[in-house]
């Protein structure tokens, strides 16, 4: 039996991470999997943890300054089974370098202690590996994110689509300079396509003050987009909606890392714009161009789309090849469990 500790709530992409992680574990390690909500760990769970062959930390950008106790409030000294990260990543602003990042002393003690007891851990990109190495941890493998691996598509080749009929534009978590201008350009560039704007946290991401402020911006954006022929898709908390939307797309363009990775895993063309280190790390891992949000200049994004069509998807094919070539590393990690 394996226990996975996950944190999938409003963000549809987090549900995808957990689903793909469990598929890998079920196929290559153990079919008996129990999932525990990282925010709802109770006294009773420690008995469960100690019956498991491993306790797997699943999720996205968990390597934050306070990974313990803020992200994973698990008392490691009470757990006899190995506590092992699977596909965790580092999160920071695009302006921050890995060598300058520091965990709190309490968090660093947590990270070092779980790595001391694990043969290997799984990191989702080279920047994460670098952050861990800077903090004295040398047994993390760059396996890619679990979302890289749709087990039904591992051997399926990428095929370029020169005339996309359905385009999805994924919105950033926080409105960015140039987001609207880029939508206008996409509208003109693909006038005959079915065009959809997606919100991974929903159009109304939360009901607190910050959430209401985002919702006001997103609602105004959505209304204006609809007037220009775009449909709106709210994916909050729904893996089935995410899979249905992107699975039917011919091209994804936008800010959501896991929309991008889902599409690549299904061999669908995708171009990612990076809000923070999550996207930057994936660009580096996949050998893709690092398109970072700037002051509103959308020219680099336009150029990347035109280059995609000019080269018949060379960048996508390269990323898909990297995913395929990295899968044995993921399997190597899974064997240690």
UniProtKB/TrEMBL annotation:
Domain spans labelled Polysaccharide pyruvyl transferase: 11-277
Pfam families: PS_pyruv_trans
Cross-referenced InterPro entries: Polysacch_pyruvyl_Trfase
Organism expressing this protein natively: Mycoplana azooxidifex
Protein name (database record): Polysaccharide pyruvyl transferase domain-containing protein
């Amino acid at each position: 039996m394996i226990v996975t500790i996950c944190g999938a709530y409003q963000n549809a992409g987090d549900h995808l991470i957990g689903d793909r992680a469990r598929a890998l574990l079920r196929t290559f390690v153990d079919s008996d999997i129990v999932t525990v909500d990282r925010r709802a760990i109770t006294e009773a769970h420690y008995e469960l943890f100690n019956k498991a062959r491993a306790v797997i930390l699943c999720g996205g950008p968990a390597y934050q300054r306070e990974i313990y106790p803020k992200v994973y409030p698990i008392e490691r000294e009470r757990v006899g089974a190995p506590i092992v990260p699977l596909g965790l990543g580092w999160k920071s602003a695009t302006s921050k370098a890995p060598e300058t990042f520091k965990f709190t002393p309490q968090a660093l003690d947590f990270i070092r202690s779980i790595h001391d007891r694990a043969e290997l851990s799984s990191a989702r990109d080279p920047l994460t590996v670098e952050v861990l190495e800077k903090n004295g941890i040398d047994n993390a493998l760059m396996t890619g994110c679990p979302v890289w691996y749709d087990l039904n598509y591992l051997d399926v080749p990428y095929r370029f689509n020169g005339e996309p009929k359905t385009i999805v534009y994924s919105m950033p978590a926080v409105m960015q300079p140039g987001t609207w201008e880029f939508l206008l350009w996409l509208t003109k560039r693909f006038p005959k396509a079915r065009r959809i704007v997606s919100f991974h946290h929903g159009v109304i991401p939360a009901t607190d003050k910050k959430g209401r402020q985002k919702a006001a911006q997103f609602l105004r954006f959505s209304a204006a987009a609809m007037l220009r022929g775009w449909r709106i898709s709210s994916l909050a908390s729904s893996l089935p909606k995410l899979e249905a939307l992107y699975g039917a797309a011919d091209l994804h363009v936008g800010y959501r890392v896991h929309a991008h990775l889902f599409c690549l895993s299904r061999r669908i063309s995708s171009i990612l714009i990076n809000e923070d280190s999550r996207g930057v790390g994936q660009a580096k891992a996949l050998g893709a161009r690092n398109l970072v949000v700037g002051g509103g200049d959308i020219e680099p994004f336009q150029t990347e789309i035109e280059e995609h069509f000019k080269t018949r998807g060379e960048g996508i094919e390269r990323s898909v090849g990297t995913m395929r070539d990295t899968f044995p590393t993921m399997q190597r990690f899974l064997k240690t469990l």
